[in-house]
Structure formats: C-alpha cells, structure tokens
Here is the input.
Amino acid sequence: MTTHRSEPLQVLFVCTRNAGRSQIAAAFFNDLADPRKVRAISAGLDPAPRVCPEVVAAMAEVGIDLADVTPTELTGRMQTEVTFLVTMGCPERCPMIGQGRRADWKLDDPEGQPMSRVREIRDEIRGLVAALITAKAWGRETTDDRRGTSPNLSSV
Here is the structure.
C-alpha cells in the first residue's frame, strides 16, 4: 500500500545574507521541480534588507522576478521541517542536518560582482539545482500528447 504526503517535501537553501545565491537557487528550484512533490525556501544567517540588485537583474534576464522578494532569517523551525538542506558560503556557521540530507555548494557570492560574473554564478546554480532535482527524482512529469501517434498531414 502506497501512502501519499498531503504536503510537498521542503528543500532549504541557506547562505549568509539570503540576498544572492540562496535566492537564485530557491527560485530556480521552484521553477524546475514538481510543486506537488517538493518546494524550496531560502534563508540567511544575517539577512540583508533586500536581494542584491545585480541578482534581481540577472534573474530578470531569465524570466524570474525577485524584485519584491525579501531576505528571510534562518530559524530553528525551518531546519527541523526540511527534507533536504543546501548550504552555500557559510561553512563555519551553516546549519547541519542528517547525513545524506545535506549538500554544501562552494559558490562565489554574486554581491558586488560584475554582471558577467553574476550571470556565471546564476548559471552554475541553475545547473546544480537541475542536477539535484534529477538525482532526487523531484522533476516535473512530462507528457507528450503526440507520443505514439503520427500527424495526419493529408488534411493540411
């Protein structure tokens, strides 16, 4: 007998200020993962007042709007409610959870970087997020209505 969770699993992305890397990761994760299976949140140890303007601009280039997102402080409750934790750039202070439920991504902070570097960091994060989703089978299920059929070109 299979049991189904009513709530999706939760992934937490953490960086120091929650103004760059973790915001990018959570946004890409929620765009790429199946929301019925899993959702992402992000937080910081010392949250900034706003997402870095260069990050907002770089994400807008790929169709993701972070202009109205406010950085969030990491809480103990967040740590206990997550299924998987990804830390970036806070090795001494980052939270810990059970083995096999955590990854640490060594990524440069995009804050204050030239846009070309911010784009590189953004694209690197997207690749890491996509790989995590694939590894954990959290992707969106795709259906191809054309599968097994051939188009009827005689009526064109």
The chain has four helices and four strands. The helical segments are 21-32, 53-60, 76-81, 115-135. The longest strand covers residues 9-15.
